[in-house]
Amino acid sequence: MRNLMQSKAVVFTSLLLILIIGGMPRRASAQAPPSYTPAQLDQLVSRIALYPDPLMAQVLAAATYPDQIPDAAQWADQHHYLTGDDLSHAITEDHLTWDASVQALLPFPSVLEMMASDMNWTSELGNAFLAQHDDVMDAVQRMRKKARKYGYLQSNAQVAVVPGPYITIMPVNPAFVVVPVYNPMVVFAAPAPGFVVGGAIGWGFGVSVGFAFQPWGWGTTRIVWASHGVFIAGALWGRTWANRATYVHHYAAFHPWTGPRGPEHHQLIGRSEAERRAAKEGHARVEEHHAERGDRH
Predict the structure, then answer these.
(1) Rama region for 236: left / alpha / beta (φ>0; ψ in -120 to 50; rest)
(2) How far, in Å, are 57, 61, 173, 176, 238 from residue 228 at the CA level?
(3) Does some domain include residue 137?
(4) Quick one: pLDDT band at residue 180, thresholds 50, 70, 90?
(5) Using CA atoms, how far apart are residues 75 and 94, in angstroms rounded to an integer?
(6) Range of the domain at 165
C-alpha cells in the first residue's frame, strides 16, 4: 500500500512539473537567439545595403534598441527644421537618454521614420545583428555585389564605391552623408531591356554631420569588412544576443551627455587615464567650438 502511495506521489509530482514547464514555453523561447536563413537576411538588409558604410553601421547599432526608435523618430520629425550646430545644441539641451547610436540618427529623420514605420522589420534587423553578426555582414555584401553586377551601384559625386572582395561605399565628403533612395525590388535584379540603370538609385538627399556631430560618432564610424568589424565612434561594436542586457559600448560610456546621465555612472572606472582625459577634452572642444560661433543656446 505504501509503495502504491509513493508511486502515485511520484506520478503526481512528475505531472505537476510537466505542467509547470509546459506552461513556460514562450518565456524560454523568447530567450533563445533567433535564426535567419541567408535568403531571409538578404531581404532584411536590402533596405540599407546600399547605405554608405558609416550610416549603415549606425543603423545596425540603433536597430538593436528598437524600443527607442519611435520616440527618436518623433523627436527628429519635430525638429526637422534644425540642422548643424542648432540641431546639435537641441539634442544636447534635451538631455536625451536614448542610446548614442539612436541619437546619431536624429539628423536623419527620414531614416528614423523608415525604421519607426515598420517596427517588425527594425526589430528583426536588430535581432539578426545581435544573433548573427557575421551573417548579416555577409548578406550586405551579397546584395551590394548584385547591385554592382547589374550596373546600379557606381561611384558618383556623393559616394565612392570601391569594388574587390568586399564592396565599400564611403561618402566623398566624410562630413556629408547621403541617404540613397532606391527600390530593392529593382536594384537587386537584372534590369529589363532598355531600362536606364543610372537613375535607379537617388543620391540627392544628404545631411551635414561635421564637427558638431563628432560626439555621436560621425567621422569615426566605419566598417572593416575583412573582419566584419563594425566600429562605432572608433570603437568595436560588441553588443550581442548574449550580452544585450548589460553591454555598454565605449561610445555610449564616453559620450559627454548620454554617458553620465545613464545608470552607468561607473563607466569611467577601469578606463585608462588617457581615455578619461580624451573624453573630457572632446567635450571641452565641442563646447569651445559652440562658444566661438556665438551660439545662444
Answers:
(1) beta
(2) 11, 14, 23, 24, 11
(3) yes
(4) very high
(5) 10
(6) 35-238
How many angstroms separate the CA atoms of 21 and 109, rounded?
Answer: 45
174 found inside a domain: yes
Residue 273 lies in a domain: no
Q: What is the pLDDT of residues 141-156, one digit of tens each?
A: 999 999 999 999 999 9
**Alpha-carbon dihedral 294, 101, 248, 116, rounded to 10 degrees:** 130
Is 99 in contact with 261 (CB distance < 8 Å)?
Answer: no
> How many distinct structural domains can be found in the chain?
1
68, 99 contact by CB (below 8 A): yes
Question: Contact, 131 vs 34, CB < 8 A?
Answer: yes
Residue labelled with grid coordinates 551627455: 257
Q: Is pLDDT of 23 > 50? A: no
Between CA 136 and CA 143 the distance in angstroms is: 11
Higher pLDDT, 260 or 139: 139
Predicted TM-score of the model (pTM): 0.77
Within-domain flag for 82: yes
| Residue among 107, 116, 122, 125 nearest 73 (CA) | 116
Burial of 292 per CB tally in 10 Å (0-12, 13-18, 19+): exposed
The string over 176-211, giving b where at least 16 C-beta atoms fall within 10 Å of a residue's C-beta and e elsewhere, is ebbbbebebebbbeeeeeeeeeeebbebeebbebeb
Helix (H, G, I), strand (E, B) or coil at 206: strand
Question: In the chain, what are the helix, strand and coil shares in percent, each to the nearest 5?
Answer: 50, 10, 40
Confidence of residue 263 (pLDDT cuts 50, 70, 90): very low
pLDDT for 289 beyond 80 = no
